[in-house]
Design brief:
By secondary structure, the chain is an alpha/beta fold. Helix content is 23%, strand content 26%.
């Protein structure tokens, strides 16, 4: 679930160029950290693949912005996101994973060994590649939204909804994701405001009907979020503007952004199959991509579940797939 980006045209191109420095050759390269990347590293190192991992811009991924994690097995009292990622990282390093800070900026997957450029100037050749670059939640871009991230502002109702049990919350978005988040929260919370800037929902018919038939969901059509308000305790309300330009304030404790995710797959798009959003396509039931020796796990290939535990499971599968691939060479 770690963040990666492609350098723009003023900094470099998508394809790695020959570097002045010596090329490093590895057996198994993991790009990305988070539950998927670290789990892949644990399994790969235990299989004597001597994995090298580059953590990306945000070591630990999206969970490092989550205060409390209560739904990951093994933490009976819960754990903070950053602490859990440090635990996974330490476990990977214990078995010999070479964990490095660095950003993958370009790839050449046209032939094996695959070439990956790190930080625009280091070239690595690898016999197998595990992609665990995650996805980035889209936000509205408000200063107040940034201010209260982890203190009432969330992009995952399944992850954080429990903390608002019996309280009033808001969800922003008009698609299937927003509808799913709203109906999920309706089963936990007292009231759910679904904020939609248009005068209709673009969600599927079945999801629209589900929302409209849920009594504690109030749909606010033609409303835009102006500001999220709060205090030292976190979010206390949201300030909206309606179609007439009037300000409307709703008292809430949780604000959930459900306007989509962007998978961090840009630097692989020239070589791997992706869906219309950018999620890497893998063979059903595996982490194999269209290129033998290249595997994808976690949120960069999972548009449906987007949970730490499912990401970890796919990281395990990616390492096993890589081990079997290398063993057959």
């Amino acid at each position: 679930m770690a963040l990666f980006k492609t350098l723009d045209n003023t900094q470099g191109d998508k394809n790695p160029k020959k570097m002045d420095s010596e090329i490093e050759k590895v057996k198994c390269l993991i790009i990305g950290s988070g539950p998927a990347g670290y789990t892949a590293a644990i399994y790969a190192s235990r299989a004597n693949l001597n994995p090298v991992m580059y953590e990306g811009m945000e070591p630990g991924g999206q969970l490092t912005t989550t205060n409390d994690v209560e739904n990951f097995p093994g933490y009976s009292e819960g754990v903070t996101g950053p602490a859990m990622m440090e635990d996974l990282k330490a476990q990977a390093q214990r078995f010999g994973t070479d964990v490095r800070f660095g950003l993958a900026t370009a790839t050449d997957l046209s032939q094996r060994p695959f070439k990956v450029t790190v930080d625009g100037n280091k070239l690595i050749e690898t016999e197998s590649l595990i992609i665990a670059t995650g996805a980035t939640a889209k936000y509205l871009g408000l200063e107040s939204e940034e201010k209260f991230k982890g203190q009432g502002v969330s992009a995952c109702a399944t992850c954080d909804g429990f903390f608002y049990k019996g309280k009033d919350v808001a969800v922003v978005g008009g698609g299937d994701t927003a509808a799913e988040e709203a109906t999920y929260l309706a089963g936990i919370c007292n009231k759910v405001y679904l904020i939609i800037r248009k005068d209709y929902m673009r969600a599927s018919k079945v999801m629209v009907e589900r929302v409209m038939n849920t009594p504690n969901i109030e749909v606010l059509f033609e409303h835009k979020t102006k500001e999220i308000v709060g205090d030292m305790s976190g979010v206390t309300g949201v300030l909206l503007t309606n179609s007439k330009g009037e300000e409307v304030k709703k008292d809430i404790h949780g604000f959930f952004v459900a306007i989509g995710h962007k998978p961090n797959s840009d630097i692989f798009a020239d070589y791997l199959e992706t869906d219309e959003v950018g999620y890497i396509v893998t063979d059903p039931g595996s982490t194999k991509t269209k290129i033998e020796g290249v595997f994808a796990c976690g949120d960069v290939m999972d548009s449906h579940y987007r949970q730490a535990v499912t990401a970890a499971g796919s990281g395990c599968k990616a390492a096993i797939d890589a081990e079997r691939f290398l063993g057959a060479l």
